Amino acid sequence: MSFVSPIYGLFILIVLGIYWSVRSASFSILPTQSFQLGTIIIVSLFFYATLQIQYIPLLILITVINFALGRIIGDKATLGKQAKNPNISNQDWQQVLARWQEERRLILLLGIAFNVLLLLSFKYIPFFLTTIASVLNLPIAETGANWVSDRLIAPLGISFFTFECIAYLIDVYRGAPASGQLLNFVAYKLFFPKAISGPITRYHYFAEQLKTLQFPSLDWIAEGLWLITCGAIKKALIADNLGRVVDVIWGAGNLERAGSGDLWLATFAYGFQLYLDFSGYVDIARGSAILLGFNLPENFNFPYFTTSIAQFWRRWHITLGDWLRNYLYFPLGGSRQGLQRTCLNLLIIMLVAGIWHGAAWGYVVWGALHGIGLVVHRLTEAISMRYDQARHWWSSWSGAIVGWLITQLMVFITWIFFRLPNLKQSGLVFSHLWGYQADSQFVQKVYREGIGLEPVQLAWLLTLLAMFMAVVYGFHKGLKLQLNWPVKLLLVPVCLFAVWLLAPEGGLPYIYFDF
Q: Were both Cys, which of 133, 343, 460, 462 would link to 142 (CB 3.0–4.6 Å)?
């Protein structure tokens, strides 16, 4: 079931009708919230079943196992019994406490290993076998990789699913209370708006909202509908059309024929497609959650208007960045152990980010380049702090513009590895980015017949899109202006009708469904 479809519209209307009517009805057997959470679980399972029904038992099993592990890590019954013993000495108490902490640590490591191995098993076995085959020249490993690839399909959203589980176990180990009710935890894990592609949400952030769950006010209803509408526009009207352009230029048989200008156009088109596709998904997810009484975390904050790569990662895929900082960067030492260790930590977390996105060397290179970018930014920042003139220049308009140009050029160029994770294909693009002439028939076959636009027209459309995003950014961040809720309610049916009328037939799948 696609988020941008009449079927999803009907689905969410039925879900809302059942979900909120349960709250208004009176049941004597179970509390109202239990019925609501049960409704969330049932409709979430139905939603996932329309995509990959075969993996529902596995997701439930993973959820139950992580719930049990969390209960064990958070169990203080042993300490409570010892604390009531009036004869226990301080030395004995310290030994009990140390033994308890060690047991919790072992259970945490077991839980992390379980989730990581689960992720590796589904996503990376063919990648590992192919790499071994290439390095050691073992045909049997290549055969094994092909056999696994043909028979094993990773569950949708498995990367997001496992990262949330790891975050929950670590939070409990750090002192947050473990979930006391399986129903709450299952509803959190399977919550259909975020189940496939996030945003990555902490359990306790979700659980706190359960305590104050209530029917949304009129302005929140308008906000939810508006987010769904904006997400549909981003995805169906813009991202899918850009995707067709990228697929044609970088498609099979055309990549070798494209000239430098064509490859640059496809690079910028893909950068916009990726952002609008993913942020469009998150908008619909957040809008759907708001209508159900939940507020999921934001995942994007105008990342293409950042002036440093560090700032970019605070505003692009925000929940992934927070996860990497809280559960990897800080445990590694963060920036507390000197500049060299800080740079090493930045490289490590971005390599993990690259591997998390996919099982191909292109993602590893993408992560490594972003890690190098963060290291260069940190070194530049450290050097600039020693010189007042340099520090003031980076804070000036000219410094901000240079920083923006460098950051966005690096971001868009590295998206090539993201779109073409096969290093032969991405390497071909890089080798043709400067001074390469297109095939004599390329414009006719690809642009006029395949896309229906001239190269100049496509360049202008991308420019207009960038200018429109800049205007929206200016209204939101500069002027602090937003539409009020009555205007949003009036625009919702108009915009959705435009999406239905103008969106291309047979929409493209969400890009982040692959991750």
A: 133
Strand ranges (DSSP E) for 373-465? none
Pairwise CA distance, residues 56 & 48, whole Å: 7
CA distance 156 to 195: 9
Both structure tokens of 137: 């020249």
368, 350 Cβ separation under 8 angstroms: yes
% of the chain at pLDDT higher than 90: 63
* Contact assessment for residue 327 and residue 166, using Cβ atoms and an 8 Å cutoff: yes
Q: Does residue 137 register a pLDDT over 70?
A: yes
For residues 184 and 37, is the Cβ–Cβ distance under 8 A? yes
| Closest listed residue to residue 92, CA positions, set 77, 173, 103, 100 | 100
Maximal C-alpha separation, the chain: 91
Query: Three-state SS for 192?
Result: coil
Q: Kindly state the tokens that stand for 61.
A: 């099993």
Report yes or no: 407 and 307 within 8 Å, Cβ to Cβ: yes
SS (H, E, C) 280-299: HHHHHHHHHHHHCCCCCCCC
First to last CA, the chain: 18
- How do residues 58-69 score in pLDDT, each as one tens digit? 999 999 999 999
pLDDT, one tens digit per residue, over 307-357 is 999 999 999 999 999 999 999 999 999 888 889 999 999 999 999 999 999
- Cβ contact 433:264 at 8 Å: yes
- Nearest Cα neighbor of 193 from 124, 285, 115, 123 is 285
Domain-wise residue ranges, the chain:
52-213, 216-300+440-515, 304-419
d(CA 288, CA 242): 25
From the candidates 317, 357, 370, 377, give the one annotated as an active-site residue: 357
